[in-house]
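The instructor's notes for this session suggest beginning with a concrete chain rather than abstract definitions. Hand out the sequence below and ask the class to guess, before any prediction is shown, which regions might be ordered.
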Amino acid sequence: MNINANVIVNFNEELVRIIRQTANQLTFNVLEIGALPIEGHPEPFHSLLTMFPGSRVNAFEVDPDLCKRLNDKAINGLVYHSIALGRKEEERPFYITRHPMCASLY
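After discussion, reveal the predicted structure:
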């Protein structure tokens, strides 16, 4: 299926307009677990921050240097946290693989 990107953008803009008419104070709070960016592929839900002012994205990525760089250029409402999430607070080995996107607690 070949869909024109302009049609998708226009549909999204129309949907946002309709939502704002019915719930003009609507905000979102999104958790992004594993926030390693893929160059050239921005996260679509980051646009919620501009479409719905007051929304927040709390992004978690374990690399502290990467988090600092991402926070330095993050848009308003987007905050990166350098911490791994788990069931309980504890110290555990963190396995870094050849490709950082595959790093894991397991």
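Then share the key points. The two ends are 38 Å apart (CA to CA). Residues 29-102 form one domain.
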